């Protein structure tokens, strides 16, 4: 599957779609809720912004609670909304929101910073948090090592990350939200996930996404991709 299989136009929206011109109600489309979690400063905001806005943000601040980014894509002729929940990595900014993150989640993206081994060592606690919130074990999960553009500062070797990914039956991607050469690859990561979700034919339709019901089967095959 290539990212080029889908339409490239972007839609940025924090709210649901309104009525269409002419007063017709909007077409119902499937929405995939994907939460992005990991330590503070690993680049969750930059990755989600890169995918939804098509560029690296000029500056970011620590996320408080959660930010939503949404992009509509067409996959195999079907219009789908990818809703990214960009969560706060800092505990003090998460507390009140955590319950909401995990409600009706369709997929999880775990992010670590390739230049910060501590963020990699935190991954088991993020996985544990998912378990504690009773996230079904068959929900698709992927592991993303970010900041691969900082080649001289890498602290997490690919083989170590791959071992971890294999142990947890997750595909591993090493990428950069910043390096423009990696733009297509951030795109490909989320599009791969969207294709996977679509192929599992979740039940939900329409908005708001919190009312969705979804059941997804796992796809355990792990992929390693360093696109730097
Ligand atoms: N070199 C480089 N820097 C990056 C990359 N992605 C993010 N950054 C930088 O890393 C810092 C943190 O990025 P954020 O996206 O705000 O991190 P976050 O994970 O959202 O942090 P919290 O909101 O606190 O959880 C910022 O200074 C970004 O500019 C990347 O791919 N390469
Ligand atoms: Mg953030």
From TrEMBL:
Principal cellular location given in the protein's record: membrane
Name of the top EC class for this enzyme: hydrolase
Cofactor(s) the protein requires to work: Mg(2+)
SMART domains per UniProt: RAB (SM00175), RAN (SM00176), RAS (SM00173), RHO (SM00174)
InterPro entries per the UniProt record, alphabetical: P-loop_NTPase, Rab33A/B, Small_GTP-bd, Small_GTPase
Pfam family of the protein (one): Ras
Keyword match Ribonucleoprotein: no
Catalyzed reaction equations: GTP + H2O = GDP + phosphate + H(+)
Entry superkingdom: Eukaryota
Keywords: GTP-binding, Hydrolase, Lipoprotein, Membrane, Methylation, Nucleotide-binding, Prenylation
GO annotations of cellular component type: Golgi apparatus
E.C. number: 3.6.5.2
Presence of keyword Membrane: yes
PROSITE patterns: ARF, RAB, RAS
Bilayer topology: Lipid-anchor
Biological process (GO), any one: Rab protein signal transduction
Signal peptide: none
Record's subcellular location: Endomembrane system
GO terms, molecular function: G protein activity; GTP binding
UniProt xrefs under PANTHER family: PTHR47978
Record-stated family: Belongs to the small GTPase superfamily. Rab family.
Protein's recorded name: small monomeric GTPase
Organism: Cyanoderma ruficeps
């Amino acid at each position: 599957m290539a990212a080029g299989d889908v339409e490239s136009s972007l839609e940025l929206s924090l709210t649901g779609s309104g009525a269409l011109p002419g007063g017709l109600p909007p077409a119902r489309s499937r929405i995939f809720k994907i939460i992005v979690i990991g330590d503070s400063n690993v680049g969750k905001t930059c990755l989600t912004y890169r995918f939804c806005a098509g560029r690296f943000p000029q500056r970011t601040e620590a996320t408080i609670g959660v930010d939503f980014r949404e992009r509509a894509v067409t996959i195999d002729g079907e219009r789908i909304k990818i809703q990214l929940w960009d969560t706060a990595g800092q505990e003090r900014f998460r507390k009140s929101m955590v319950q909401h993150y995990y409600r009706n989640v369709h997929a999880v993206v775990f992010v670590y910073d390739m230049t910060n081994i501590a963020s990699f060592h935190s991954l088991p606690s993020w996985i544990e948090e998912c378990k504690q919130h009773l996230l079904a074990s068959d929900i698709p999960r992927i592991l993303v090592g970010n900041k691969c553009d900082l080649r001289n500062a890498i602290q997490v070797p690919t083989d170590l990350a791959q071992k971890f990914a294999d142990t947890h039956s997750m595909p591993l991607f090493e990428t950069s939200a910043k390096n423009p050469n990696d733009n297509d690859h951030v795109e490909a990561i989320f599009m791969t996930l969207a294709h996977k979700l679509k192929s599992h034919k979740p039940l939900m339709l329409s908005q708001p996404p919190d009312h969705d019901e979804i059941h997804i089967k796992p796809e355990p095959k792990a992929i390693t991709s360093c696109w730097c």
